[in-house]
Amino acid sequence: EVQKLNQQLEEKNGEIQQMINQPPYEKEREILRLQKTLAEREKAQATSDVLCRSLTDETHQLQRKLASTAEMCQHLAKCLEEKQRKEKGNADDQISTERSHQVFLQLLCILDNETSLQSLICNLQEENRMLKQKVAHV
Questions:
Q1: 131 occurs within a structural domain
Q2: 109, CA 20 to 30 Å: which among 120, 127, 133, 137?
Q3: Is 59 part of a structural domain of the chain?
Q4: Coil, strand or helix at 138
């Protein structure tokens, strides 16, 4: 890794020496090209930031909807459980409880998937930050 970085450093030093030895108009042309590249990258980064914010907002909204849906499912499962208790007695009560627990576990799995999406967004934001640092360094 160190050798690779040293080699890259030598290449960059070579590029710098070439630029120093270039006539002034070529230097200005190279500066303009680099400024244009930087502007394009900044624009791409801004777009990426907007998309990340949008995805984060959508993730939060979906998590809220999922939580309310899970809450509603729990309520409905309890109502169903009470109704079945009244109709069939204690023997069937255990089966109803198991069904409601299965529904709840499925909803928890969905919630975990949403959390994974949020983690992915955070990773992408960190990668964008690192790329910005590399661009600034260059």
A1: no
A2: 127
A3: yes
A4: coil
